[in-house]
């Protein structure tokens, strides 16, 4: 079993009558793993159980094949969604203090703190109090705090929140480097375009249950394909009775369709050509944002039943 593998295995958690997590399972190796779900889906609860802030009712968290204990947790770098910094401490002093809490010597702590201050573009802010920084720079310090002790695992809750595009690029590069070095990186985010662009794999949690896990390509492979067809001479409603196709929009000569799994797009093309010339026929697989929206819609419909 790989040494750098983080496993969440059948984890469940209740708060009174509320089932927060129901047999949640996934694993992360040296990769970027995007953990996504709507508010209240169970993301933060899962992260807190990994960190030992909460105890699971059942199931287990393992790292390197062994149950996660206090010693293992000192090797985790955590970045909370809400600021977890001391507002009146200066940036450098704070990072050195946190590194020493994780067992680094004073010299090691200073060297590491200076490294991450420079790497994350905080050199001009190193002697400023955290509360005097912009929200974006506070977020950079928060990431530095998660990295300063050279963690073996990274767990980040909304790490890109409040960052400008340049800071997003810097943080993305750092996380990619960590994953390439074999560090499992788990992060939650509502910025699904970033998740789709950055992550090796994605896990979608809904109502405390994992409903999908895989690469974006794998998750969208079985999703309904969409077609965009422009047929200038077609009559309105020409596609309404095509088998396996559902009309999404019809705007003049352009029609957008959604195909059921296994439906023949060539049959749709033949039907379009039967109306006259076809000037556009394009096929598109849904994005992660669209896939996530469908999952949330399904959850809402289930609750309404």
From TrEMBL:
Keywords linked to the UniProt accession: Antibiotic resistance, ATP-binding, Nucleotide-binding, Transport
Main subcellular localisation: membrane
SMART domains per the UniProt record, alphabetical: AAA
Residue ranges of every copy of the ABC transporter domain listed in the record: 6-232
A biological process term (GO) from this entry: response to antibiotic
Presence of keyword Nucleotide-binding: yes
Subcellular location: Cell membrane
Classification via PANTHER family: ABC TRANSPORTER ATP-BINDING PROTEIN, ABC TRANSPORTER ATP-BINDING PROTEIN NATA
This protein's name: ABC transporter ATP-binding protein
Organism expressing this protein natively: Amycolatopsis albispora
